[in-house]
């Protein structure tokens, strides 16, 4: 069998994230245009009052939807930070286990265990 392409071997998360970011940029740009159009029609003197009410409601709904898109962007950035923190905590755990495996470092391990038990934090289970 042939080797997979280079892009397949890479972590797919950054590629998907870049694609999502570009798609959101296009969506926000389109939303901004629709909000501007709905606002313009809601303020129009030529449109009947019943249509202006509908345009005003549509503008409000579009603003809410644009806000939801922006909130999802912040959630994705928090997810990225969680991935980075998880990788960092796993590397610290590996280092800690390597230190604990050396018999002369048993005292350090016991002191760390006592400190964790005395703290107010719940122990983290990796699963």
Question: What does this protein structure show overall?
Answer:
The structure is a single chain. The protein has about 130 residues and is an all-alpha fold. It has one domain (about 5-120). Helix content is about 80%, strand content about 0%. It has 4 helices and no strands. Helix 2 (about 10-45) runs antiparallel to helix 3 (about 50-100). The mean pLDDT is about 75.
Shape: elongated
Overall number of strands: 0
Number of helices: 4
Helical content (DSSP H or I, runs of 4+): over 70%
Structural class: mainly alpha
Terminal residue distance: 34 Å
Oligomeric state of the chains?
A: single chain
Radius of gyration: 27 Å
- The helix/strand order is HHHH
The tally of domains stands at: 1
Q: What proportion of the residues form beta strands (DSSP E)?
A: under 5%
Residue stretches low in confidence (pLDDT < 50, at least 5 long) are none
Q: What's the rounded overall pLDDT mean?
A: 77
Blueprint of the fold:
Layout: H1 6-9, H2 12-43, H3 49-101, H4 106-118
Helix pairs in contact: 2-3
Outline of the structure:
This protein is mostly helical and 127 residues long.
């Amino acid at each position: 069998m042939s080797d997979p392409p280079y892009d397949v071997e890479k972590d797919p998360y950054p590629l998907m994230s870049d694609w999502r970011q570009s798609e959101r940029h296009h969506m926000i740009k389109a939303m901004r245009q629709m909000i501007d159009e709905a606002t313009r029609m809601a303020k129009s003197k030529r449109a009947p009052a019943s249509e202006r009410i509908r345009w005003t409601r549509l503008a409000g709904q579009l603003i809410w939807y644009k806000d939801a898109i922006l909130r999802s962007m912040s959630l994705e950035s928090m997810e990225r930070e969680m991935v980075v923190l998880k990788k960092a905590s796993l590397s610290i755990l590996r280092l800690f286990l390597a230190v604990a495996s050396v018999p002369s470092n048993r005292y350090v391990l016991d002191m760390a265990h006592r400190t964790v038990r005395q703290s107010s934090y719940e122990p983290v289970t990796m699963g």
